[in-house]
Amino acid sequence: MKFISAFLVVLFSVAFTNALKDPAAMMKIAKDCKESTGASDADVGKIMSHSEVDTKEGKCMFNCLMEAMGVVKGGQFIKESAIKCTKEFGAPDDVAVKIIDECSKISDADPCELSTKLAYCFKAEGKKYGHDIGI
């Protein structure tokens, strides 16, 4: 439970939707994603520490979280939602578009792999512009 609480603070430091502004709702999403994917505490720890997630379950947890944020749906990247989320992390409009334009070049037939690659791209591209983009 401590892993989930800390994970939520890091991952959802800025709310994405009205539902995610509620800490109880955020806790439920993370818990549900952890349980539905079979992700371990070690997987959650790697996500929190921005370390490479190397298990299928951990990568699928990224996918579950991305789906909850509306960034990915059915294995498809939703660019407009990603821009909105990036702006909510504090990136100005023009920077958010640049970050998401770069990350939208990523593709993978496996939704879990796609979401993991996107999460790392958001982080790396955000860093180029001086913004910490969540995951």
Which percent band covers the strand fraction?
A: under 5%
Helix-strand sequence: HHHHEEHHH
> CATH topology, what is it called?
Recoverin, domain 1
Q: What is the radius of gyration computed over CA atoms, rounded to a whole number of angstroms?
A: 14 Å
Q: CATH architecture, please?
A: Orthogonal Bundle
Q: Going across the biggest sheet, name each strand in turn.
A: 1-2
Number of helices: 7
Average predicted local confidence, pLDDT:
82
CATH level 1 class label:
Mainly Alpha
**Total discrete domains:** 1
Shape: globular
Class derived from helix and strand content: mainly alpha
CATH superfamily: Pheromone/general odorant binding protein domain
Helix content: 55-70%
Major sheet attributes: 2 strands, antiparallel
Unreliable sequence segments: 1-20
Oligomeric description of these chains: single chain
For the record, give the distance between the C-alpha atoms at the N and C termini, rounded to a whole number.
19 Å
* Overall number of strands: 2
Signal peptide: 1-19
Pfam family, one: PBP_GOBP
Main location: secreted
GO molecular function, one term: odorant binding
What brief labels describe this structure?
Odorant binding protein; 135 residues; single chain; Recoverin, domain 1; two-stranded antiparallel ribbon; mainly alpha; odorant binding; disordered N terminus; 7 helices
Protein model, in words:
- The protein is an all-alpha fold.
- The longest helix is centred in the C-terminal third of the chain and has 18 residues, at 111-128.
- β1 and β2 form a beta hairpin.
- α2 (23-37) runs antiparallel to α4, α4 (56-69) crosses α7 (111-128) and α6 (93-103) packs across α7.
- It has seven helices and two strands; from the N terminus they run ααααββααα.
- The protein has a single domain (2-128), classed as Orthogonal Bundle (Recoverin, domain 1), CATH 1.10.238.20.
- It has a two-stranded antiparallel ribbon.
- The protein has helices spanning 2-11, 23-37, 41-48, 56-69, 79-88, 93-103, 111-128, and strands spanning 72-73, 76-77.
